[in-house]
Design a protein that fits this description.
single chain; alpha+beta; Phosphatase 2c, domain 1; six-stranded antiparallel β-sheet; 29% strand; globular; binds manganese (II) ion; PPTC7; EC 3.1.3.16; PPM-type-like_dom_sf
Length: 267
Amino acid sequence: MGLGSLTKFQGDFAIHGQGVRISNSKNNNGQALTGGEDAYFVACQNWLGVADGVGQWSLEGINAGWYARELLENCEKIVSDSKSVPMIKPEEVLIRSAAESQSPGSSTVLVAYFDGQVLHVANIGDSGFIVIRNGAVFKRSSAMVHEFNFPLQIERYDDPTEFIEGYKIDLDEGDVIVTATNGLFDNLYEKEIASVVSKSLQDSLKPQDIAEYLAMRAQEVGWSACARTPFADAAHAVGYVGYTGGKLDDVTVIVSLVQKRSSSNSQ
Ligand SMILES: [Mn+2]
């Protein structure tokens, strides 16, 4: 795979991510398990990102979503403004964006770029992605947490370099990438996500519809006091044996389908 050409796409495939965000962060009255405030972006067809602003800042009168939103707005600006010399490294975009972000706060963040063949991901914290191939989970990111319910995050003026976990995943036609904040992964098991996605594709649903369905389903489980969930499993594993149900939190989901490039979606 040579780097001699400056074309934006190196491979044969394109993705068109479609996202949705459901906000729940204002519904809880400051209870301990209140989550953060999410943000997301999809840009230039092949860039996407999610971020989750940390909730505790709201106690100091600082909106938990400000930093997360600015971080992603800057990412979007950086990739959109760099058309002549395309950016191809999400970690570089994230480092530049963090250096330019002025809002107080802290956030988890994931930035991803698809070059037409390989998905490049830079991740900090407990947002993540799942790649679904032939109806099963093919690859997934791992959550980066200090301890239960306390994800790694970056704060204003941090240099994210040493916190970033990078992924490079070779993709194929028909693969589906589900990128989301913890609001999805804490409430739905990855097998359930994979089966929803493959059933939806069989029913010819669009990525936008699938993203909306997954987010609504995660929210429903988030309200539940008795459902079995990944979040409850994790709570049990560290000794909170009485915890049952989901985790009410913001939910952000981006669904991207890997398709053959057609002349209509080349640039
Ligand atoms: Mn969250």
